[in-house]
Design brief:
mainly alpha
Length: 131
């Protein structure tokens, strides 16, 4: 049986607290992984490992972090993601709210977007949580 949204959030929260050494109350749905919780690229490996173990799933890196889009000249011009690139990101990351990124699609800003809620929505899609 699929876990509830609350169970997904609690397991994600536990993984983030363990991986990042942050306090429980810092891990809110709106908290950004990089800006609010201080995650660095090396931390994401630990987070993914913990989530895979907690939920018994495999998380392909390209699903959660589509870096290939951000480094592709077809989708990036002058350090900014093109409208075509935004469309591709939305296709690849239906769990993420990209509305803020669309307003300022600078490649270096992309890593600061992912929120705890986005991560929870991604896990929910992988484990079959329904509304």
């Amino acid at each position: 049986m699929a876990p509830s949204k609350e169970e997904v959030f609690e397991k994600v929260k536990e993984a983030l607290v363990d991986a990042l050494g942050v306090d429980d109350d810092e891990v809110t749905p709106q908290a950004t992984m990089v800006g609010d919780l201080g995650a660095e690229s090396i931390d994401f490996l630990d987070i993914v490992f913990r989530l895979e173990k907690a939920f018994g799933i495999e998380i392909p890196r390209s699903e959660l972090f589509p870096e290939d889009i951000l480094t592709n000249a077809q989708y990036v011009r002058d350090g900014r993601v093109t409208p075509d690139g935004i469309v591709e990101l939305k296709k690849r990351m239906p769990f993420a709210d990209l509305s803020q990124f669309e307003a300022n699609p600078a490649v270096q800003e992309f890593s600061t977007l992912l929120t705890v809620n986005d991560l929870c929505r991604y896990i929910q899609s992988k484990v079959g949580v329904t509304e």
